[in-house]
Amino acid sequence: MQRALQEHQQLFAQLHGLGGAIEQTAERIADALRRGNKLLLCGNGGSAADAEHFAAELAGRFLHDRPALAAVALSGSGALLSCIGNDYGFEHVFARQVAALGVPGDCLVGLSTSGRSPNVLAAMREGRTRGLTTIGLTGQREGNLLAEACDHVIAVPHTATARIQEAHGFIVHALCGLIEIQLGHG
User: Fold this and answer.
1) pLDDT (0 to 100) of residue 119
2) Alpha-carbon distances, residue 39 vs 1, 28, 32, 132 (angstroms)
3) N or C: which end of the chain has fewer CB within 10 A?
């Protein structure tokens, strides 16, 4: 317990260094939403939960009552994921949805602590092909490909999945608050 708390505290002390990347990412997302575009999000496991949480805070509410914001987590339908996974392969479960839903000017956020999730990387490639702004939330593991696949990246300075996910939760809340402010609701 002590070790986990110490790692958490040390990591969160380093998050100040991500402030510029977080602010820039919030600006990109707010600009897209202001134009009438949407935010698509994807991730696996705990990162899928973070993607759904992010979408819920924007489509529902975060700190302030405001109009609903167009945010969709691509991991939300078990039927859709199993259909695409069965027919095309699990690597395509997010890219196929980006092809169906994404339009130029939308933003696509991919969450992957390792930066090596094949289905998230495929979604980023599809998003770039379709003119979406691609954003990665990841960690700093060896072999991380997500940072290279995105227009913007927020890379948590850690290699442990649990610590990266803890930081992603904080970053999601920071982004939601900044987006609300930039859209005049804060």
Assistant:
1) 98
2) 37, 10, 8, 9
3) N
Mean pLDDT by 10 residues, the chain (186 residues): 86 90 98 98 98 98 95 93 96 98 99 98 99 98 92 96 96 98 92
Collapse the DSSP code of 35 into the 3-class scheme (helix H, G, I; strand E, B; otherwise coil) and give the result.
coil
Residue 72 main-chain phi, psi, to 5 deg: -135, 125
Model pLDDT, residue 76? 83
In 3-state terms, what secondary structure has residue 66? coil
Question: pTM to 2 decimals?
Answer: 0.95
How many degrees, rounded to 5, is the angle at CA 174 between CA 144 and CA 150? 30
Output the six-digit token pair for 156: 């948590």
Please give the domain boundaries of the chain with CATH numbers for all domains.
Answer: 31-182 (3.40.50.10490)
Position of tokens 């949480």? 53
Instruction: Yes or no: say if 138 and 144 are a contact pair by the CB < 8 Å rule.
Output: yes
Gap between the Cα atoms of 125 and 23, Å rounded: 24
Q: How many CA atoms lie within 13 A of 73 on its CB side?
A: 23
For 142, phi and psi rounded to 5 degrees? -65, 140
Sheet holding 152-155, edge to edge: 71-73, 39-43, 107-112, 133-138, 152-155
- State residue 69's pLDDT score: 98
Q: What is the pLDDT of residue 142?
A: 87
